[in-house]
Amino acid sequence: MNNLIEQVLSSTNLEKLAYSLNCFLEYVDAHENASRCFKQLNASIKQECAKYLMRHILYENENLYSFFDENESVLIYLDLLWPQNKSCKQSRKQLMKIIEDISIQITEPQGPIISNDSINKIMNYLNTECDFCSAVLKNKLFFILRFPYSNKKWNACCYTTCNKTNLISHHLFLYHVNLDELSSSEYVFLHELGHFLQIAVTADATVVPKSFLEIAEPFFPGIRNDFPEQAPEIFADCFAMGIMVNSPFEAHDPYTGIRKEDKKLFKLYMSALISALST
Ligand SMILES: [Zn+2]
Fold it and tell me: Alpha-carbon torsion 230, 231, 232, 237, what sign?
């Protein structure tokens, strides 16, 4: 089994990860002590990921966020999507889901992916304008994971997690944008930061601040009662549009049909939310 664990740990891309996890599950299914196998793999993944955490703390903390390319992102991805203390049945199901998602969703890169340089510029702008890392991310760990593919389901995906010791962490998975989307890679990045703000206020990825439903209703009639489930996506879009208006990134806003005056209102609202978080 150690060889199979080593194979998972040395997976340098998502395809290899899916293959290694499959081999691991085949072994587990053919042996009796599944619980021990899952625990051993999970502990090994956690140990490997601890070194990224140390690197972030020791060397990159002044930026408040760290970048990871695919070969490093693979295990962080696995660690995040397969939390500890799951039963054998849950672990098996979750690992199968990870394998399935990789095989169904991952495709050749379609459009661009935001550069590290652009991310630095956006983060500097946000930290100067509204102290984003401090107010919204609470200066907690923020890992940005970049994958050299497109994902049929998402252009990006964000997670805010809180572990047993209340260590909050933020993870953002970035893919090459899908060409059929009305999105620039800068817009996608800001949209995801909008979700971090939403979660910082409500502590729930499916819930937006009540005040947002009130201000958004005239612009998106029905958001309160007819399609509240779409509210988090609309919130993140309004954040991205609001931040981009009158900023160095305005040319990357794909929503050119929406009035600038409306976007300015979103900017005011989002700024007020952020400053409320910092008090
Ligand atoms: Zn979204």
Answer: positive
Interhelix angle for 2-9 vs 14-30, to 10°?
160
CA–centroid distance, residue 213 to ligand 1 (Å): 16
b/e burial code for range 125-146 (CB count within 10 A of at least 16 → b)? ebeeebebbebbbeeebbbbbb
Q: Which residues surround ligand 1, an ion (CB under 5 A)?
A: 233, 236
* DSSP symbol at 178: P
Report pLDDT digits (tens) over 20-48.
999 999 999 988 788 899 999 999 999 99
Contact (Cβ atoms closer than 8 angstroms) between residue 106 and residue 182: no
Helices (H), 154-249: 185-202, 210-216, 231-244
Per residue in 143-178, pLDDT tens?
A: 999 999 999 999 999 988 876 555 678 999 999 999
Give the mean model confidence (pLDDT) for residues 246-274. 94
User: For residue 208, how far is its CA from the centre of ligand 1 (angstroms)?
Assistant: 12
191 Cα to the center of ligand 1, angstroms: 6
Structure tokens at 84: 């500890």
- What's the CA-to-centroid distance between 153 and ligand 1, angstroms? 11
| pTM confidence score | 0.92
Higher pLDDT, 97 or 51: 97
For range 91-119, the mean pLDDT: 95
Residue keyed to tokens 């994958």: 147
What would the two tokens of residue 212 be? 């947002």
